[in-house]
Amino acid sequence: MRIQLLKYFFTSLVAFGIGVMILNSATLSRVNYRHCIDDSSIKFNESGVIDTNSQWRKLGLATYIFTAYLDDREPCSPLITVMGFGEKSESPLYGTLLLLSGAKIYLGKYGDRKKLNPTGHYTLGKLGPYAYLWLLPVEVIDARYSRSIIVQQYHPTTGKTEAEIPITRPVYSTKTFGVCIDSPLFGPVKAQTIIQNIEINKVLGAEWFTIYVYTSDQASLQVLHKYAGEGLVDVVQNWGRGLPGDNTHYFGQTLSINECAYRNMYRVKYLVYTDLDEFIVPRKSIGWADMMKKIENFKYDTYLFRHSYFFENYNNTTLDSLHVSASQTEFTCNASYRVELPKFLTSVIRLRKVHPPKEKSKYILRPLYKSTIGVHEIFEHVGDHIKTYVVPPDYGLLHHYRLFSGGPNPVAASTVDDVKRNQRIPDEHAFVYKEKIVEALRRRLCR
């Protein structure tokens, strides 16, 4: 345990040494260094989380803030980072730090407002994701004494509004791979879909999951709560309560993917970003750990995986022509109960086309070195010398399982045209994991 603790503390010092440029240069020039954060306060937590404390707080007419984090990647100049949505022309935010003793320290206007989706064009009424940054003042000798931040906004129409947000300090664990399900749950997501995703990713190497709930039925929530009780999941349960989803991109996705990195900055070494119907599958390795040993390099903090479609309902008419044998579609729990296998093991035909980098791509990243995260690419690293590595498809590929026709979210017309031109091939790489996946699903479902 002590070795793991020292490893994380050393990583923080490395991040400080390479010059993490999080605030703008004008703000950094005014930094007064204080007693640096040491490792005496680091505590490991391997428990699952049902987060009902984080909630949306509205300021003014259209500013919504959700969480606040202590960012100590520069241990001698820690930051308070507030995550939220706002309009491009919103009034500035002002902060007051509330200490555990009850004392208050006025922080003034934020030192920086970082746009988390720099390619987005926000029209009137549309909200963009932002991180609002304040430098922890020199009066605070130890960041552990900070309890919360009171955020204020002055607006001509609403006057002064304010909200208090607890400050979340870094959480450490011994886990290596975590998964951020990068689309908040919404609509009729089946509980079995969640179970299949978690169990498949566990076989690939996942030890931790962060899932944002915009809407969900009771059965899916019960599944998530059970996994949280087993120390596997952080359920962000209030994501959809108070968020104006119609005014944000895809139920707040552009903020949730960045919030997930802050939430897991020290909890895991790697974060895997995929959706419920996507999996990053090694091609020359068994599992993520073995794959990362082959491709990891100190020059890179993000590993981008190119995308290919696997069609759920295209196999029936093409198996013979592509010389693919019909695969098992279910397994038996007992004489009267059979369970359908996940599409990961039954959809074995994919589009020949592998999309270019940043087009539908997903990635594995090191959250400690992230600054601005996009859905299909990383917009900003913490240092100019740190880059993204595009993983060759023969080392790892993003499998995306979709209905070829029908369903609420049909594939694009251009994809249908590609398939009609016979641009499809068999791909059975998932079968390497079949035995372990079936065993895991049997333990979970055959009760």
UniProtKB/TrEMBL annotation:
Protein family: Belongs to the glycosyltransferase 92 family.
GO CC, one annotated term: cytoplasm
Subcellular localization, as worded in the UniProt entry: Membrane
Keyword Glycosyltransferase among record annotations: yes
Short name of any one Pfam family annotated for the protein: Glyco_transf_92
Residues annotated as signal peptide: none
Example GO molecular function: glycosyltransferase activity
Chief localisation class: membrane
Keyword Acyltransferase: no
Annotated PANTHER family: GLYCOSYLTRANSFERASE FAMILY 92 PROTEIN
Keywords: Glycosyltransferase, Membrane, Transferase, Transmembrane, Transmembrane helix
Family matches, as InterPro entries: Glyco_transf_92
Name of this protein: Glycosyltransferase family 92 protein
